[in-house]
Fold each of these.
Amino acid sequence: MDHSHHQALVEFSYWLAFMTGILGSGHCLGMCGGLVSGFFMKLGARGFAPCLAYHLTRVGVYALIGLLAAALGTVLVQTGSFGRLQGLLQIVAGSVVILLGLDLLGVSPWRNTLAFAPIDWLRRQFAGASARGVLPGAMIGGAINGLMPCSMTMAMAVKATTAPSVVEGGLLLLAFGAGTLPSMLAASFLFGRLGVRTRGWLLRGAALFVIVLGLTTVWQGIRYHLVMQRLLG
């Protein structure tokens, strides 16, 4: 695969991740809007700084997840025959991303129960964050929010395991997080104003972008695997 083709695929993945975040706004508001609104009411924050600290920390956690996922993918590839295993990893990861997209649509035979940390621990930390002070509390709350179980975030993390480099894995999750910023920054204002039907259509759009991301990953993996089979005999 030549450099220009590789770069085009990377940029396409970033765009898909960003659009997943944008279209996932209905899902974000439905799942986290009330949580975020309640958190800031309890925090008693005034001004824009605590809100910005919360969401920048949340997006930073996404980027860290992407870096770690890409590093894990690199380790997995390097434990065996590099060429063959990299293609297989892309195929498996793409298939999991497709399943997570179908889960968002509510039609997957497998329901996502995965989380980045124990959910009870996350709830306790989130509930106690407001007692840490306004800015520290906002940053802790944002970090915990970034670790909350979410099929969209999990799909992006799985995709990041196939990133060509650790940095590109972090950038993929950063693009996704940037896409969630408009809706989540306005969560306290918009929560409850988007109807169930509107949130449903936005979620379907986000799920379709996740599925396309998974399909492109599987396609890349099949192509890479076939090329390496010919090269390695």
Note: The chain has a mean pLDDT of 79.
Amino acid sequence: LTRHTPMIITIPDVLTPEQVAYGRKILDEAEWVDGRVTAGHQSAQAKDNMQLPEGSPAARELGEMILKALGRNPLFLSAALPLHIFPPLFNRYSGGQSFGTHVDNAIRTVPGTAHRIRTDLSCTLFFVNPDEYDGGELCIEDTYGIQKVKLPAGSMVLYPSTSLHYVTPVTRGARVCSFFWLQSMIRDDSRRSILFDLDLAIQRLGRDLPGNQAAGETAIQLTGVYHNLLRQWAEM
């Protein structure tokens, strides 16, 4: 686990190397369209990239692969406490393409349905390694300044959708990622961060002090606190 700040969390190895290779093969063969098709009015003025059409067979297949992997990832589940996840989208930057400073739309309608989600957290999952392209850093503005993110293939960053962020120009190679949003059971970022820290502390107790009776009793007590806070704060 790497935490750039209390609010920006990187999750390594969401996808296996085999899944990344399979995904790249499909993405290399896919037909891409102008990325502005999914941008809001403000974002469209800043957005310059390519994107898989929403609902395309390639996007659906790889999106399902990602969602299944996330459902088995305890770090993601602990950090995000997801209630609804928007179907993953896919973008590609090359030849100087970039995405200027913007904030994500607060509400997204799931394509082909009447269902809407509140975007509490934004997710970017990388399909290419950092040494395969120049530029393309995801820059996220927060209270600690600008955090630059460029992760190994198969890894993902999770950050508040309220954040101003941008992608720097890709000057060599291609940056290929999946991006999507989720509505968390915990709307408030600070409360979600408290629950995440508490969950990590409980896990560390069990890992670092196995068989220790006092540690076990403390872990039980803290687990009760965790679930009582979750019960008090969760929106379902």
Note: The first strand starts at residue 2 and ends at 3.
